[in-house]
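Ticket #463: bound-state structure for iron/sulfur cluster.
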Amino acid sequence: MLCEWTDHKVFGVKDGAILFGVDQGTLFFIDQQTQDVLTRWSRETTLELDDVPQADREILDDLRDARFLAPFGARHRLQAFDGDIASIPLTTMVLEVAQDCNLACTYCYAEGGSYGRPLRLLDPETARQAVRKLINDSGDTETVTLVIFGGEPLLNMPAVEAAVTEAQALSLETGKKVFVSLTTNGTLLDQDIVDFVHSNRIAVAVSLDGPADLHDANRSDVNGFGSYATITRNLEGLLKGATSAVAARVTLKPDQWQRIEEVFFHLLELGFHEVGIAPVSPVRLELLPDAEQEEALLQGFAVLSRAFLAAARQNRLLPFTNLIDLLARLHLGQTKAVSCGAGYGYLAVDTEGGLFVCHRLVGEESFRVGTLDTGADPAEIRRALDEVTCGRQEMCRSCWARTLCCGGCHYENHLRENLLGLAPGGSCDFIRRWFQLGIEVYAELRRSGAEEFLQRLEKRVKC
Ligand code: SF4
Ligand code: SF4
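RESOLUTION: The complex was predicted; output attached.
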C-alpha cells in the first residue's frame, strides 16, 4: 500500500519520546525502536509499505493505525473553518456595561476603559436586549455564557442587575442554563454587590497582579494611588460565602516576568480559587519583551508546571488555569480549525449596542459587525476575520502547533502587525515552547497513570 506521512512532531522527554499527531491532536509515548523507524522512514515523502523490511513493517503498520501514515492522497489536514457563519449558534456574549473606569492602569488596552471613545454606560434596557439576543440566537445550545465586562462594570450596577435578572428570567422560561461571569478591578466590591454576586452565583474574576509593590506599579487610580489595599480588603467579603469560583486575573509586564512564581503563590495565599497569568499586550512598543524577558516568562511557567505536577502526584489540583486549560484540550485531543470563538458564536456588545467580534476589539471600527437591532452580519464577520488572518495562513501551514494555536489571538495580531507595524510571527517561538511544555506535563501525568486526575480537567475546556 502506498502511504504518505501525516504531520507529526517528536518530543524527547525523560525516559523516551512523545509523538504528537498534528491534525488528530493525538499523543503517544514511543520507544527507542519506534523512534529509530521514524528516523529511517519519515524523510520519505511517500512510502510503499509492502516494500518495507518486515522488522520495520510492524511498527509502520501501528503508526498507520494511529493515523501517522495515511493512504496516498487520502491524508486528512485540518482546514481553517470556511463554513456558514450564520449557522453557528451564539454561545458567549461579552457585555461592556461601562466604557469607563476608576483606575488608570499603565498597560490598559481599553484606554482607561473608554475604548478610545467618550465615557459611557450601557443603559439597562440595552443590557436586557443583549441578553435576549444571546438566548434567542443560541439555537440548541443548552448552556450559554454571559460575561459582564468593562471598563469597570461595577460602575454601572443598574445594567449589571438588569442583565442578570433578564438572564435568570429567560433561563427559567427556556430551560437554558446561563453561566454568568464578571470581570472587575475589585475596588468597588461593597457588601451589597458581594451579596448580589453570591446570591446569583456569579463567577468573579478580579484583576490583581500580585504583591502590593508589583500590583500598585501597574494598577493605580488617576491620582497615582495604588489599589492593592482596597482590593484585598474587599476580597475577604467576596471569598467568604462564595458560591462560584473567584479567580485572579493577572497581567504582568515583561520586567515583572521573573516574579511569576511569587505572584502565583501570593494570590493563592490570598484565597483565590484560580489564578490565570497573562503577559501584557504590547499596547506600546516599550511593552514588547526582549529575548531574555521571554525566557523568564517561560521559565516562570515551567516552575509553576513543576509545582502543578508535584501537586498532581498527591491528587491535588494546583489552580494554574493557563496550564489546566491546555492540559484539558490535550487530553480531549481537541484541535482547532479557528484560533478562538471570536465571531464564531462569540460576540461583544459595546455600550451603544454595537456588536464586535471580540471584547478586546471593541471600538476598532473594522471589527464592528452589526448592532443589537440589526444582528451580526455574517459577511462582516468573515471580512473582519479575513482581514486579521490574511497573510498568516502560509506561515501557519507548516507549523507543528497550528492545530493548537491556529494563528493566535486576533487582537494580539492586530496590535502587533497593524498598529505597531511588526512582522507576523514575533511571538511564535514562545507559543510553540509553551505548547511543548504543556505536552511534556501531559505526558508526565499520563506516564504516572493519573487518568482520573486528567478526567477532572476535561470540564475546563473552553472555546
Ligand atoms: S505558533 Fe505561529 S506559526 Fe504556529 S500556528 Fe501559531 S501563529 Fe501560526
Ligand atoms: S483569543 Fe483574542 S481575539 Fe479571541 S476572543 Fe480571546 S481576546 Fe478575543
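RESOLUTION NOTES: Residues 340, 342, 346, 358, 360, 409-411 surround iron/sulfur cluster (ligand 2) (CB under 6 Å).
TICKET STATUS: resolved
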